[in-house]
Amino acid sequence: MTDFTGQDQAKMRPADADGFREAWDTLERLWQQTVARARGMDAELLHERVGREWSFIETLRHLVFATDAWVKRAILGDPSPWDPLDLPHDEMPDEPGVPRDREARPSLDQVLALRADRMATVRQVLAGLTDAELAGRTVPVTGPGYPEPESFPVRRCLQAILSEEWQHRLYAERDLDLLQARPD
Predict the structure, then answer these.
(1) Is residue 18 part of a domain?
(2) Which pTM value belongs to this model?
(3) φ/ψ of residue 47, rounded to 5
(4) Less Cβ crowding at N or C end of the chain, within 10 Å?
């Protein structure tokens, strides 16, 4: 499992815009390590679920969805930011126009291309973020989708992304450990 420090985890609850930028830098560094590890594994293992959890590929697809929902839709105002490979959380009811193809089996490179685009979007939003904007609220989008077409605290949207990225990387590392420990 990739090492992380308690300091890294503490960065995931930033107090200001600079703290969000620092947290994102930390997440990008940690995910680079996790992806490098996954690249060293058999491609089929990256589609395997451990227990009832998502596979590595599904986890990455879910993170694309989270960014589409909380950054592209809620913060940037795109009413329909979805990619066909987005994977909403299981508890979310079906929403018109929001994809949910659980049977899709994209390659790691396909999903990483989407992730790179979404991670660049987050980086761009954070690069220009001020403390005043962080304390503000989003403008509600029009049309159905997820999240609901309402105004949200910007901090809540960005905190959702940090939490999703942090937790799902931990789950991914745990599952990669278990997949690598399987006897041949």
Answers:
(1) no
(2) 0.93
(3) -100, -5
(4) C
**Whole-angstrom Cα distance, residue 47 to residue 12?**
28
d(C-alpha 49, C-alpha 25), whole Å: 28
Rg (CA), the chain: 16
How far apart are the C-alpha atoms of 111 and 63, rounded to whole Å?
10
What does the angle CA 75 – CA 168 – CA 182 come to, to the nearest 5 degrees? 160
Query: What's the number of domains the chain is made of?
Result: 1
Using alpha carbons, select from 128, 53, 51, 35 the residue that is nearest to residue 90: 53
What span, in angstroms and rounded, lies between the C-alpha atoms of 32 and 38? 10
CATH number at residue 159: 1.20.120.450
Q: Which residues contact 1 (CB under 8 A, 6 or more apart)?
A: 173, 174, 176, 177
- Digit-coded pLDDT (tens) for 153-171: 999 999 999 999 999 999 9
Cβ atoms of 83 and 99 within 8 Å: the answer is yes
